[in-house]
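Cross-posted from the bioinformatics board.
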Amino acid sequence: MGNRHRTPYVPGTPAPCLTVRPLEGCRGVRVAGDICLATRTIWERVLEQAVREGEAVYHLELSEVTFVDVAGAGALAAAAGRLEDGRRFVVRRPPPALCRVLDTFWPDLSTIEVSMT
Amino acid sequence: MSAAAEPRETVSGPFAHPALFYRDDQEYLEGTVPFVREGLAAGDPVAVAVPGDRLRMVRDALGDAADTVRLLDMREAGRNPGRIIPGVLRAFADAHPAEQRVRIVGEPVWAGRSATEYPACVQHEALINAAFRGRTVTILCPYDAVRLSAQVLADAHATHPTVIPAGARPARDSEAYAPDAVVARYNEPLPLVVDAMTFPFVAQSLASARYAASDEGRRLGLTGVTLEDLVLATAELTTNSVVHGGGSGVLRIWAEDGHVLCEVRDGGRMTDPLAGRRPPSRDQRGGRGLLMVNLIADLVRVHTGDEGTTIRCWFTR
């Protein structure tokens, strides 16, 4: 354990960020970074766009997401709940905590498919 | 079999919450098994959430009927008392139509509960009354009248509107019933721990607070899911401080006996005693953070007042 985290916040500490890039070969995006209070607006915009796209299957590649808080999982569940019949999100390689939160609060959400490949 | 009907007869509203005082195994079974059997005979869904040794006793006494009862080891399902209302009681009750009576035997207080756990246990018992007001539910809570202290037994009279005295049935109204006073009395200060990793945070440093919790948790011996839980709890508590608790707070992490503890202090005051214990409606957007903390931590203690709020969580190493 280094001492760097013992010091209180000082201006200049890098803020968490979330980057979003289109996926090649299928509809969806690759998201990287932290899904938390600071990036919630970006994450909700990503999900808003995903719902609007209208594709039957929309991929959310999350292997480079390091953390998702409960509100971030809630935003995903809410967006998935707005998908019409026959549509779904495929969530690829999410951080384990996201699966735990989804299993805890939305265990029977049929419009989210978690893929570990 | 006459004992089983008594809790229902003494309540005015649909919700019944009797404390059953027992002195030995026989009184335990005489108080609980007829309650279960009568429920099954009436077609009521029945759950029994009691410590494992008691659970085996009830299961054996029920015989084949045990197959239709939801059996839960309270030492596991209710290790954190803050988890019991959302994770055990309402999880079971809410799975059935509102007009159907649900019966639950729930034993959250047993002789092995530590002094650290007890305030959370007794607050939980008091809050059951608010959490189930108006619901068609009976929750029967056994209390070991021999091994529990006089204070614990007195508290049970304050947290239960109805009591079934040991060996002196029938049930009667509890004259000492005062659940709000119990919640307030056990809102005990959590003294500052000096020898801890200390991290003051504001909105811009929430991520750093999370990394600090991860590093310190790992250093103190947490791994895998438990380490993830510590990080998730830290994120939820610190975010709550920023959003609801005055915009800043102080995170502390340290080890104590077999646990790693995570504590967040802020300047806010919690006004809803059921915060973190109410299962959210499916479509509710926010408000799940503290509930998640209650579901994953081995113990959660809260102190709140004009001077601020402290939430402390235990994770077993």
